[in-house]
Amino acid sequence: MNDTSDSTHDFDTEQWRTELEEKRTEKNEFFAEHPQSPVPPEEREAFEALEYFDPDPDYRVTATAEVHEDPEVVLMDTTTGREMRYLRVATLEFDLERADEELEDVTTELAAYQLESPNQEPYFIPFRDKTTGQQTYEGGRYMELAADRDLETGDELVVDFNLAYTPFCAFSETYDCPLPPKENWLDVTIPAGERVE
């Protein structure tokens, strides 16, 4: 999550676009050069850049949070056939104005999770949409939203799908990645963030 005080009303599109492109450049450098890159060492020399949809501020939306005081355990299947335990800590509701050519002003919900063990980790949002398995990785994509404080019901926050990324297991079988649960399968098209060739 971007800072909860960051709203669409005082949004500088050009600055946002510049910062987004800088983040993408940094990530490409990490994938190409860093020892912890998910790209196998023998493939890094041939790695050029990740694929992205063009930056689109229409997929940077304001969501309203519903916080679950007694969060339920969600068992997420993983790419290696295991299960990981998460807590469904919040539900985020937002409108997507350009989510699909036939639909406008679609009210959509996504669940936000945290690992069951106590931690200060960001809110984890795995999801699928109509690009999954076609323009984007077949196992879905992720977003991580780092709040500047604990969320409360009714809080508004910015969710930027331009920051949606492909899990590391798409690049190497040595990683085990949770798969988005069905409650986070969106029946809309979100052409924003990372894509596949």
From TrEMBL:
**InterPro entries named among the record's database cross-references:** DUF1684 (IPR012467)
Presence of the UniProt keyword Amino-acid biosynthesis in the record: no
Quote the Gene3D superfamilies the UniProt record gives: 6.10.250.1680
Keyword Magnesium listed? The answer is no
Q: What highest taxon heads this organism's lineage?
A: Archaea
Note one Pfam family from the annotation. DUF1684
The coiled-coil regions, if any, are: 89-116
Stretches of Basic and acidic residues bias are at 1-32
Question: What are the record keywords, sorted?
Answer: Coiled coil
Region Disordered: what ranges?
Answer: 1-41
Q: What is this protein called?
A: DUF1684 domain-containing protein
